[in-house]
Amino acid sequence: MSNKIRLRFPPSPTGKIHVGNMRTALFNWLVAKKKGGELVLRIEDTDQARSTKEFEDIIIREMDWLGLDADEGVGIGGEYGPYRQTERLDIYQKYAEQLLESGYAYKCYCTQAELEDMRAKAKANDKMPRYDGSCRNLTEAEQKEFEAAGRTPVLRFKLPAEEKDVVVEDMIRGNMTFSTSVLDDFIIFKSDGMPTYNFAVVIDDALMKITHVIRGEDHISNTPKQILIYKALGFELPKFAHLPLILDENKAKLKKRGKDSVYIGEFREQGYLPEALFNFMALLGWSTGDEEEILSKDEIMARFEIADVNKSGAVFDREKLNWMNGKYIRAAELDRIVELSIPFLIEANLVSEAEITSQHDHLARIIDEVRTNVDYLAQIPAEAELFLTERSFDNPAEAAAEFAGEDVKLVFSTLKQKLYAKDQLTNETVGEIFKELKKELDVGGRTIYHPTRLAITGKGSGPEMTSVISIFGADEVAKRLDSALEMAK
RNA sequence: GCCCUCAUCGUCUAGGGGUCUAGGACACCAGGUUUUCAUCCUGGCGGCAGGGGUUCGAAUCCCCUUGAGGGUGCCA
After folding, report:
1. A251 CA to B11 C1' distance (Å)
2. A120 band by pLDDT with thresholds 50, 70 and 90
3. Residue A314 gets which letter from DSSP?
4. Which segment of A120-134, A199-213, A361-375, A453-467 scores lowest on mean pLDDT?
5. Is the C-beta of residue A142 closer than 7 Å to nucleic acid chain B?
6. Exposed end of chain A (fewer CB within 10 Å): N or C?
């Protein structure tokens, strides 16, 4: 047995994983890896109505994409398994039994309707909804009676009379005190035979030897209940840290089944780079304190301290993510960006599957040119289109008028001639051509550039002319120049 | 309602009694580079929620108010 620290990421597979959950995974990963500890991936699937294998697969796939590798857990294995809660029922039952025997739990036969009634009444009287404890001291005869009536009991945790205040020590927030008077005899086993969240986490975290529990702020009020269970079972308490929430544009908690696409998969599909999302998520609720915000995984890991995490919620700012992702796209190896961009090009019907090998260098040249224009790779086709399709004018009549302008003919013919005079067209050589053109011809710069751009690309703006021309090559440029002149007639 | 938490530019944040006429990043605006767009560079706009204390001195400490968020489930 080592004294390695052990952390866990325990999502429930009840929806597609989004940045809120993933940021929690990220911080756990950071703390674990930084200190040479272990990260456990546990699947909390006790909500039978909503949990699906599909969502579980998505969680694993997206963690993998971001490089958040667990050391142990679902899909990996380990000595503290199984790691899916539905496969640990016998374990929960055993501890529930123990609680029942030691008097820390009791069976409750109240129906959902009765409980709802109780809640409604409490609300009407401006009281906090608390279970009234009606089943707390049922005799065996009474219990038999309920069972005979076909009622299936739940198990409730009996609040220990000796506990007055429960103090949660939090690595980020310091101490938080809860009076047991605001707690009630909460359910630990549902009538469907499943443990509740508050019960299962404690058993699992204790048995899996978790040393640090880092989770969202939305779990703060669960913590005192869990601490009571730890104590009742004689388990050692882990350290807790509650992260500030990631908020939507309305400053509300991100919803797992919400409408806004903050799902990790959507970022992947839109061509965000994992290291950009990683970097961005790390900066939600945490910062290095200095001015550089583009940080590698290693830098983040080296500088991350859980105690430095903020206490207040952070709004998810897509604009800033876009900026950061664009930075990463421009800084990345071209080959990688090309590989990642090709599917988008195929999807947009700009190239065929068959062409990608023969056209590879040409595509790479184009992608390299247009990457400066995009925030994410799904935007590549729109930018690359003009290089991969026939020319089309937004406004043919206006273009024709432009081509009919004074000196245009001269500019085009001189340009053509110079293009063929070079044995190679690169940004540099094309740049020289334009310099010569300006010097030799007595025309304004606008008369050179604007009609030329319009003739070649059909658009009024776009990538630099030197790139445009060197990408198209002399023949294609000449062809387009000629046909532009035809339009002017 | 009750419990808990939080509170610096529109957003993400630095700041932990004097060096703060509050620093950076995104966004926005302007200028430069590119005779275009974008990239890139420079500059600008913009904030300590309010009120009381404590102190020689408060963005920083305390209290109250206000606001926001979370919880209040046989969801996790």
Report:
1. 11
2. confident
3. E
4. A120-134
5. no
6. N
Q: How far is the CA of A175 from the C1' of B63 (A)?
A: 20
Residue A417: Cβ within 10 Å count:
11
**What span, in angstroms and rounded, lies between the C-alpha atoms of A405 and A117?**
83
Chain B, protein-covered positions (CB within 7 A): 1-8, 10-15, 23-27, 34-40, 68-76
CATH code of residue A376: 1.10.8
Provide the ipTM.
0.96
Pick the last residue of a domain from A294, A309, A331.
A331
Q: Is the CB of A334 under 7 A from strand B?
A: no
Residue A355 structural domain = 332-388
Tens-digit pLDDT profile for residues A317-368:
999 999 999 999 999 999 999 999 999 999 999 999 999 999 999 999 999 9
Instruction: State the catalytic residues of A.
Output: 256
Residue A201 neighbours by CB distance under 10 Å: 25
Q: How many residues does chain A have?
A: 489
Q: Identify each DSSP E strand in A301-360 by its residue range.
A: 314-315
